[in-house]
Amino acid sequence: MRIRRVYEDPLPDDGARVLVDRLWPRGVSKERAHLTVWLKDIAPSTALRQWFGHDPARWDDFQHRYREELAQNPDCVRQILDLAQKGPVTLLYGARDTEHNEAVVLASYLSSLQEN
């Protein structure tokens, strides 16, 4: 499973391209995004996203809270796991911070489920 910014050009080996942001990224057309699916319901809740504000000081707490939200959203999680059984999946996000964003947490969460 890959993680990439939606602003980067698609690669031939991206496989299924899944946008995991609740909001559509500014300046990106649907054609340019080359999405397989936009799963806005798998993104952190609006309240959690606004609380976090991409503040690295809140990163640990954000990860914990977002994982709790993911555990309550098995249908969306299952959609990505089903795609992963068919081939590569690239999780796309719009944040500038490449280390502190929901796609990083989601990829880790999905990996832990695939190992079990």
TrEMBL record:
GO terms for molecular function: uroporphyrin-III C-methyltransferase activity. One of its GO terms (biological process) is methylation. Its EC number is 2.1.1.107. InterPro entries: YeaO-like. Pfam families: DUF488-N3i (PF22752). It comes from the Bacteria. The keyword Methyltransferase applies. Keywords: Methyltransferase, Transferase. The keyword Transferase applies. This is Putative uroporphyrin-III c-methyltransferase.
